[in-house]
Amino acid sequence: MPRFAANLSLLYPDLSFPQRIAAAAADGFDGVECQFPYDWPAAELAARATESGLPWVLINTPAGDWQHGERGLAALPGREAEFRRGVDTALAYAHTLGCRRLHVLAGLQPPGVDRSRCLATYADNLAWAARQAADAQATLLIEPLNARDVPGYLLRTQAEAHRWVQTLGIPQLKVQMDLYHCQISEGDLTRRLQHDLPTGRVGHLQIAGVPDRHEPDDGELNAPYLFTLIDTLAATAGQASPWIGAEYLPRRGTEPGGTSAGLGWLRAAREALASRPVL
Ligand SMILES: O=C(O)C(=O)[C@@H](O)CO
Ligand SMILES: [Mg+2]
């Protein structure tokens, strides 16, 4: 059965970041993930998760100057030293948090720089970072992002991401398949999941409603159907229960209790999964 992680960078915006961990536990999530934990001491985040009984499932490596629009460093020529320092920082956090998945963002193609130069940098940096992750018994993830939200991002499709994983051939490098981005960029989610999940190259999944990135309970995605499909594909392939990160902007925004009030989709998912035939 899939396990659900609350993405604490987006959920529970009415609470302080460390308080969000206990809120996710109270709401029945199985784990927590976030984009950037680096404004808080790792030891505090680890202690809060232990108190709440939830594992840390995923963090991103530092992604450059986020406030000024940067979206990762892995494919940016000339930023290699900063990228590698960021990976070291992320690995230190991951060690303290007991977290085994690190998402590394590629970045936006800089004006005047050839795409081929960016991709050569990406190849070198990913290979280096995946080896560091392997030494730390962690998995490095790459995630295609849609062009509406992140114009100019250097990794766009699932097929491209899978090609990187196959080309670099490092078992600790995998794809983070965010169904929200995939639906916007490519659609055809059933066939993509049927094609990609059995390969074993998908190391993490995420979801949000499409088109507005709110709760996955209306709009284009049929979440209970997708969760059941994922569950069936993973079980058939003999894989461990996949993690699915709930990475969305709660419809009720910062209204107190707004995230919890929007979790009908999680209860519906558990019911749909519990009632599916055992394989
Ligand atoms: O935007 C997403 O989707 C993510 O998973 C982030 O971690 C990266 O922008
Ligand atoms: Mg995502």
Strand-helix topology:
Elements: E1 3-7, H1 19-26, E2 31-33, H2 42-52, E3 56-60, H3 80-97, E4 101-103, H4 115-135, E5 139-142, H5 158-168, E6 173-178, H6 179-185, H7 189-196, E7 202-207, H8 223-236, E8 243-246, H9 258-261, H10 264-274
Parallel strand pairs: 1-2, 1-8, 2-3, 3-4, 4-5, 5-6, 6-7, 7-8
Helix pairs in contact: 1-2, 2-3, 3-4, 7-8, 8-10
Bound molecules: the ligand O=C(O)C(=O)[C@@H](O)CO and magnesium ion.
The site of the ligand O=C(O)C(=O)[C@@H](O)CO has 10 residues, from loops.
Provide an overview of this structure:
Helix content is 41%, strand content 13%. The chain is of the alpha/beta class and 279 residues long. The chain has a single domain, classed as Divalent-metal-dependent TIM barrel enzymes (TIM Barrel, Alpha-Beta Barrel), CATH 3.20.20.150. Strands 1-2-3-4-5-6-7-8 form an 8-stranded parallel beta barrel, surrounded by 5 helices. Strand 3 (56-60), helix 3 (80-97) and strand 4 form a beta-alpha-beta unit. It is globular. InterPro entries: HyI-like (IPR026040), Sugar_Epim/Isomerase (IPR050417), Xyl_isomerase-like_sf (IPR036237), Xyl_isomerase-like_TIM-brl (IPR013022).
